[in-house]
Amino acid sequence: MAVVDHRLKLTLEHLLNMGGGFVLDFTNATFADFVENSTGVDPYTEYEGSKARILRQLWADQTDYLFAKLTIDMLEYRQTAEDLGRISPSSDPDRAAADRRRVEEVIARLRPMLEANDPWSRDEAAFLDKDFGTLDLSRVDVPVDFQTVISDRLKEIEICLSNSAPLAVVLLCGSTLEGLLYEVAKNQPAAFNQAATAPRRDGKVQRLPDWTLSQLIVTARELAILGEDVAKFATAVRDFRNYIHPLQQVSDNFRPRRITALLARQVLRASLDDLAAKRPPTSTVTGSQSEGS
Description:
60% of the residues lie in helices and 1% in strands. It is mainly α. Helix 1 (6-15) crosses helix 6 (93-116), helix 5 packs antiparallel against helix 6 (93-116) and helix 9 runs parallel beside helix 14 (258-277). The chain is elongated, with a radius of gyration of 23 Å.
């Protein structure tokens, strides 16, 4: 059972606008969907009453981990909804600024509780435990200046991880991997375009620049350019473009945590290791041919 002290409870009731039985701007349906996505619990199956009353019961009944997860998810939703104009902040600028600080303080207080108990599956733990050592970027079949950019991004990813910025990690890993695989595909256009998993539209293979990261990963796996681990854990990065836009992030209720960031980084590192180990012979394909059909 989560222990919610009186001061924290009072702060949360204020920040989540729980007066009158409400919670933020949720309807009954959106509240139920949000809580179930966050905790796996259908609140209206387990509890009765207003949204605020049900939330208080959830605080009392859930484990520390689920309490922290649900609370952080709701506070991050509040911030994003305010930024998008879906929730109006206080008309008093000083109070609005103070509320933003309170949100950040509560999230910082609860984050260790969340991360310390983040449930990893056995497969995730085994994947994260793999040590790829020092990655030899010179073995990756991309231009030298591209290798330099990748090296810089790997350093930025570590900075973001150290400063609790999981969304930044996911975006950096996803965009880097997409760029890498596009360069690899341009060097092997025939193999990618003739693969069984090559994406098609109106019976024709799409041009390589139009392939999504997910499509690049699936075909690279078919061609044995990437290993099974990358394809298996690609969910950590494959939809990264969706989360560049806050509205889509709110719509999908996507709030990456440290485990998501760690998996994204490991997917990128595993991909780099695979690409370095399986560099093909130098391609003689011309630039015009490399753009795909």
